[in-house]
Amino acid sequence: MADVTTGSATPEDPRGNRPRGIVRLARAATSSLLATGISQLTLLVLLSTQATGAGMAAALAFVAGAVPNYLVARKWAWGRRGKPRVRGELLPYLAVIATGGLTAVGATKLGALLIAPLDLPHVARVLVLDAAYISSYALVFLMKFALLDRLVFAGAVRTRAATSQS
């Protein structure tokens, strides 16, 4: 029996041939934190400069973090290399993260609607909207990880293939 890999350098689980879930979770969390930092910076700049409304700022911030998150998480957390399959990987990934993005945009817009009558100073408004945006990310991270791990990048784990010996 020979091991066939898909390029994963992730440590193996001693009970089987799958990379350890805790390693993937830690790497995905690190990638997500990097993406969140990029999103946060984008959101704070857009809200502080009043370049866009809360919803558009959240949407642009989401995209600014989603692109590097995909590239880093795909390679580092799930060990994927090469060109991604559009239907098998890229489209499901977009569907999963779109849920998180819509949650972030919705939470930010809801926050803006709730604080609009309060006539808060600009700095306070930016901080409240930022808190709404970031809290939505915290709420959906584990759901997104599970879907990415079990649906989108499920083929990135090591598999065993039987070989015949002649």
From TrEMBL:
<keyword id="KW-0472">Membrane</keyword>
<feature type="domain" description="GtrA/DPMS transmembrane">
    <location>
        <begin position="32"/>
        <end position="153"/>
    </location>
</feature>
<dbReference type="Pfam" id="PF04138">
    <property type="entry name" value="GtrA_DPMS_TM"/>
</dbReference>
<protein>
    <submittedName>
        <fullName>Putative flippase GtrA</fullName>
    </submittedName>
</protein>
<feature type="transmembrane region" description="Helical">
    <location>
        <begin position="122"/>
        <end position="142"/>
    </location>
</feature>
<feature type="transmembrane region" description="Helical">
    <location>
        <begin position="93"/>
        <end position="116"/>
    </location>
</feature>
<feature type="transmembrane region" description="Helical">
    <location>
        <begin position="25"/>
        <end position="47"/>
    </location>
</feature>
<feature type="transmembrane region" description="Helical">
    <location>
        <begin position="53"/>
        <end position="72"/>
    </location>
</feature>
<keyword id="KW-0812">Transmembrane</keyword>
<dbReference type="GO" id="GO:0016020">
    <property type="term" value="C:membrane"/>
</dbReference>
<dbReference type="GO" id="GO:0000271">
    <property type="term" value="P:polysaccharide biosynthetic process"/>
</dbReference>
<keyword id="KW-1133">Transmembrane helix</keyword>
<dbReference type="InterPro" id="IPR007267">
    <property type="entry name" value="GtrA_DPMS_TM"/>
</dbReference>
